[in-house]
Amino acid sequence: MFFGGQDFGNFGNPMGQPGYPGHPAYPGSISTGDPMWKCFLAIAGQDGEVGAEDLQKCLTQSGISGTYSPFSLETCRIMIAMLDRDYTGRMGFNEFKELWAALSSWKQNFVTVDKDGSGSVEHHELNQAIAAMGYRLSPQTVTTIVKRYGKNGRIFFDDYVACCVKLRALTDFFRRRDHLQQGVVSFVYDDFLQGTMAI
């Protein structure tokens, strides 16, 4: 994976969380010797954070989308929302690195299941990709995802990443409320809206 001329590779899944690549990839203090720090500084605002437009430009220039279409502004917004724990609509350096790790893992997963090299995944390939991330979804849920993100039954990389972001963010939201880890929670309507509309 090349980013601004630097090879960052795939950061993998250091915490072993199913479907949670790079969760968090680099805890702790910021290292100015980190090659990603220079790239981050090049796009960060004076507040030391990155907005959706900056992220879109950075990801396009980085080449992480490879030969696929660049990420849409909406996909960049939901990428930030997935990691925006302080609800500023922007991301700091550690969040940026966590996102890079997730994107690298999702791209590797996408390429693996896109066996015909079409640049898109079909229903059965998406099912394989989701299972490889550790999720166990019903066939009805996978069909719903394909209807939401697919174009003529095929999901292209940008929409695949948007799907992965929402799947991770909504699973995080649910797990934080599933204290007994039984797959059942009770929501107050306002809590439900805040959690789902933020993504």
TrEMBL record:
Membrane-topology annotation of the record: Peripheral membrane protein
Q: Where in the cell is it found?
A: Cytoplasm; Endomembrane system
Residue ranges of every copy of the EF-hand domain listed in the record = 101-136
State the GO CC annotations: cytoplasm; endomembrane system
Which keywords describe this protein according to UniProt?
A: Calcium, Cytoplasm, Membrane, Metal-binding, Repeat
Does the record's keyword annotation contain Membrane?
yes
In its keyword annotation, does this UniProt entry include RNA-binding?
no
SUPFAM superfamilies for the chain: EF-hand
Q: What is its main location?
A: cytoplasm
One example of the protein's molecular function in GO is: calcium ion binding
The entry's protein name is EF-hand domain-containing protein
From what organism does this protein derive?
Muntiacus reevesi
